[in-house]
Amino acid sequence: MKVILTQNYEESARKGAEIILSALADKPDMLLGLATGETPLGVYRLLAEACRGGRADFSRARTVNLDEYVGCREEDSYSRFMSDNLFDRINLPRENITFADHLADPAAEVARLRGFFAGHTVDLQLLGVGPNGHIGFNEPDETLESLVHVTDLAPATIDANARWFIDGAVPTQAVTMGMGDILRARSILLLVKGESKREALRGLLESDAVTTRNPVTFLHLHPDVTLIAEKSLT
Ligand code: GLP
């Protein structure tokens, strides 16, 4: 794992955006795996700026998102989050976006997305991490699932994500890429932001052990991971 420690979040976002922009320049039709949450927001702002300034062209790129809530309101969906923060600000064709539909039957969405991943390889997967070590919505448990599945959100995740919902009522289920789907990406870019991630990050940096109780540690199994975190978190 390549570890990049930064002075502050701005620097993390800049380095993250540089890695994505360089991958896009090398492969204009890349399949980019995307994440939601606060962590990637600075990266998305810089990608949008690069596109506006003519330094990035997403016209042939394709994207797939890690996860989506089941049965949430449109305005609370991750798909809306991505439109607001990235898709509406870059020249990515709508038809090149793959997303679980928050209103569709979750079992049907799982089948559709499993089909997608059977036929596509993510070139670069951007990841954040939850305070409990989850990646996507692969929550700490006795076992982890390999493929796209419906998951019950951990109480800690519901608490951590309540800040995004006006009434605090976080959906309790999500459709998420599985650990195998994530680990099959050609390369992975993990961004860590915020004090609440210190414990999960420690598990990743202080040992090469892999544990289902801290799913982010599974990234030790991947040959091409770049971790970007603020030095103060280590
Ligand atoms: C959600 C997403 C994760 C993300 C995590 C961290 O739970 N499903 O993919 O990494 O939030 O969120 P934040 O970046 O807001 O701390």
Structure write-up:
- With 234 residues, the chain is an alpha/beta fold.
- The protein has one domain: Rossmann fold (3-Layer(aba) Sandwich), CATH 3.40.50.1360.
- Helices cover 31% and strands 18% of the residues.
- The protein is built from 7 helices and 10 strands.
- The protein has helices spanning 9-26, 41-52, 78-85, 106-119, 155-161, 179-183, 198-205, and strands at 2-6, 31-34, 62-65, 67-69, 97-98, 124-127, 149-152, 173-176, 187-192, 225-230.
- The chain has a 7-stranded parallel sheet, with helices on one face. Strands 4-8-7 form a 3-stranded antiparallel sheet.
- Bound molecules: 2-amino-2-deoxy-6-O-phosphono-alpha-D-glucopyranose (GLP).
- The site of 2-amino-2-deoxy-6-O-phosphono-alpha-D-glucopyranose has 15 residues, from helix 5.
Q: What strand line-up does the widest sheet have?
A: 1-10-9-6-2-3-5
* Estimated structural class: alpha/beta
**Which class in CATH terms?**
Alpha Beta
Amount of helix: 25-40%
CATH architecture: 3-Layer(aba) Sandwich
Question: How many helix segments?
Answer: 7
Task: Tell me, rounded to a whole number, the average pLDDT.
Answer: 97
Helix and strand element order: EHEHEEHEHEEHEHEHE
Q: What labels would you give this structure?
A:
Rossmann fold; 7 helices; alpha/beta; globular; single chain; binds 2-amino-2-deoxy-6-O-phosphono-alpha-D-glucopyranose; 234 residues; three-stranded antiparallel β-sheet; seven-stranded parallel β-sheet
